[in-house]
Amino acid sequence: MVQEAGRGPVTDEHGSAGARPPKASPLAGITVLSLEQAVAAPYCSSRLADAGARVIKIERPEGDFARGYDAAVNGLASYFVWLNRGKESLVADIKDPDDARLLHAILSDADVFIQNLAPGAAARAGFGAPNLRARYPRLITVDVTGYGSGHAYAQMKAYDLLVQAESGLAEITGHPAGPGRVGVSVCDIACGMAAHAAVLEALIARERTGEGSRLEVSLFDGMADWMNVPLLYFEGTGRAPQRVGLAHPSICPYGAFRTADDSLVLISIQNEREWAAFCAGVLEAPDLAARPGYESNTVRVANRPVVDARVAEAFAALTRDEAAARLSAARTAYGFVNALADLVTHPALRRVTVETPNGPARIVAPPALIDGTARPLGSVPAIGQHDAAIRAEFGG
C-alpha cells in the first residue's frame, strides 16, 4: 500500500516491510534546503529525505533539468523519479531579492544547505558557504562541485562522463579495443554517497559541539577515491591494469564464458582451494589444477589465453542449467550476465512503489533494511507543488 502524499507506509514487494512496526524516522525534525539539479546533490538529499528529513528543493520555473532527461516513467524522467522522492518543490530565483529573502528565512531555521550550481554561482548570489556559515553558525553547508577548489580545474564544468574520463576510470573500463563508459552515473553517485555520509557525520558533530560545518565534495574526489587500487597498483608496478572486458586483470580464471545454449556465465576463482574444486567438479579434470601453466594464480594470469580456452571449451558443452548445477556442486562463485529484462524478474530484486504527479511508479528499494523493514518513501513532487505552503510558512 502507498500513502497518497507525504510519508505513508510502503510495502516492499518481497514482503520485507511490515515485519515489525517501523521505528521513528532518525532525521525527523531536520530541515534541508537544497539548491540542486541533476544527480549528485539530489542523490544526497534524497537519502536524507528517506531518513525523515524535510527537504525543500529549489527549482527554476522550468524545473530541475533532470526532469527532462527522458519520459520513461509515466511521462516523467527516470532519473528524477529515482532521486526526488519525499521532497518539497519550491520555485525560486536566488537572484531575485524577494526570493533571496525567502530562502534566508528558511535557512535561519534550517540544518543543512546543499548546492551544486555552476562554480561560483551560489556565492555571487549571496549563498556562498563562508557567508552562510558566519550568518548561521549551526548550519551545515554542502558544496557539491565537479573538481573541488583551489586549482586549475576549479572552474571547469563537470558532468559524469567527463569525470569518468578525467579520473582514469574510462581508461581501465571496457574492452581491450578501447576505453569505455560505466553504464550508470557512477561519478555522480560516488559523490552523492560521500556527501550523504559527510552530512550525517556533521550532524553528529553538531550534537556534540553546537557548531555546523562547511563541507565540500566533488565528483572527481569521489571517483578518485574509488580509483585507489588501480592508482596504487600503477605507482607500485609502473603498469596500469589492462582493460579485459568481463574478466579480472589480476585473477584467472575470473571471467565470462558462453554456454551451449548461448548464455554467458561469469565465474570467480579466488584461491587455490577453489581452483582445485573447480577443476574437479566443473571441468572434470582434477589433475589440471597442478599441471604446469595452471598451478598458481600468477602462473594462470600469465597463461590466461590457454587457461581461458580450456575453461571455455568445458562450458561450451554445457547448457545454462547444467553449468549452474556443476558450479553450485563445486561451490564455485558464479553469476549470469543478465539483460535488464532479467533484472526485472530477478529473485533478489526488491522494489517499492512511490507516488508521482503522473501516478504510482515502482522503483528499486533502497539497499538498507531497518530491522527487517524497508523505509517508507515520500512522493515525487511536481514543479513548484509546495510554493504556496512554503511561502506562507516563511513569509514569502
UniProtKB/TrEMBL annotation:
<dbReference type="InterPro" id="IPR044855">
    <property type="entry name" value="CoA-Trfase_III_dom3_sf"/>
</dbReference>
<protein>
    <submittedName>
        <fullName>Acetyl-CoA:oxalate CoA-transferase</fullName>
    </submittedName>
</protein>
<dbReference type="Pfam" id="PF02515">
    <property type="entry name" value="CoA_transf_3"/>
</dbReference>
<keyword id="KW-0808">Transferase</keyword>
<dbReference type="InterPro" id="IPR003673">
    <property type="entry name" value="CoA-Trfase_fam_III"/>
</dbReference>
<dbReference type="InterPro" id="IPR050483">
    <property type="entry name" value="CoA-transferase_III_domain"/>
</dbReference>
<feature type="region of interest" description="Disordered">
    <location>
        <begin position="1"/>
        <end position="23"/>
    </location>
</feature>
<dbReference type="InterPro" id="IPR023606">
    <property type="entry name" value="CoA-Trfase_III_dom_1_sf"/>
</dbReference>
